[in-house]
Amino acid sequence: MAETAAAPAHGRGWLAALIAGQVGLHAAMAGLRMAAPLQALREGYSPWAVGLLLALFAAAPVVLALHSGRLADRHGYHRPVHIAIGLVTAALLLALAADFAGGTAGFGLLCLAAMLAGAGANMGMLTIQRTAGLAAHDGPQRVRIFSWLGIAPSFSNVVGPVAIGFAIDLAGFAAGYALMLLLPLVTLFSARRVERVVPAAQAPRHGTSWDLLDAPGLKRLLLVNWLLSMCWDVHSFAVPILGHERGYSASTIGLVLGTFTLSVTAVRVLIPWIAHRLDETTVVRAAMLGTGVVFAAYPLASSPWAMGGCAVLLGVTLGAVQPMIMSTLHQLTPAHRHGEALAFRSMAINASSTVMPLVFGAAGTVVGAAVLFWAVGGAVGAGSWMARRPGG
């Protein structure tokens, strides 16, 4: 059973409800992702153990993404979102228990919490994105919707870590996890603003989910998306290394990374107002070329101000891409399989976030952050030829 194309609610405030729903789940996961490694370090675990803990947040969505996507295709919005709320809530309760258990048992509970939180936040994201995409009537409206929705992760990555950080400093880890338990309730209450739609009968589908990759242009789009998502990873990884090599303080490096996030948010706020003037393919191709140029310039930036300028430009190029790719993805796939298509995108991103930092770590040790910037920048710039119109 699946929703029809008109399934998402068009009542008042439905888009705000979707954004609030994603913030509730993602901010809770982001807060746990910041606090769990700190708790493990407090218990005396090694950086390798902390790295394993962080990898589990991204590894679980890789395994469960297709199941989550099919669940959204069959049942629409409410059932998958309620399951996602349950998973994230269970993760926070396990983290709360880990604070009392301590030792090996506590670390094991944190690992399980990481997997549940990653899986729940990803299931909610896929369902919310699918619902948002089905609400659009044309390309420009789809770009507007995904631009507004794209603000949610940036906002969540500030709200969750900042809130739990203050709570931990004031009253300890248990209080921080208890505070995070309020966030899934935001998703639960916002879901009431999304209309329940009776699923439409769907003809039996033969084959497997992997058959969807045969859709013309889909594999090429997913590869473009992977190249661009790798740029996010390398920026987060290499900027601290580059700043450390030049003797910049932690606050200066943090400001550079924060400037990038603000730039991403600003461009996604701007896009809805000019969406009718934008062509998805042109924007993606220009963004890939622009990202290549910025990555070439980053190691040459000789001051924090210059690095901040590069961060602003990179935020513009990478921030503009996601709404365009999401819009194109919905054009390339049938409505009753949007959830599966989004799952393939999610699998690629999360697999990259799990594996690529290990690759970057090995490469950065051998060749340094500058060569890493140049290599990835060259790859994404050269890959811009793949950003062609569907069927092109």
TrEMBL record:
| Membrane-spanning segments | 45-68, 80-98, 104-124, 145-168, 174-191, 221-242, 248-271, 283-300, 306-329, 366-387
Keywords tagged on the record: Membrane, Transmembrane, Transmembrane helix
Major facilitator superfamily (MFS) profile domain boundaries? 164-392
* Matching InterPro entries: MFS, MFS_dom, MFS_trans_sf, Sugar_transport-like
Cite the Pfam families for this sequence.
Answer: MFS_1
The name this protein goes by in its record: MFS transporter
The organism encoding this protein is Rubrivivax benzoatilyticus
Q: What is the lineage of its organism?
A: Bacteria, Pseudomonadati, Pseudomonadota, Betaproteobacteria, Burkholderiales
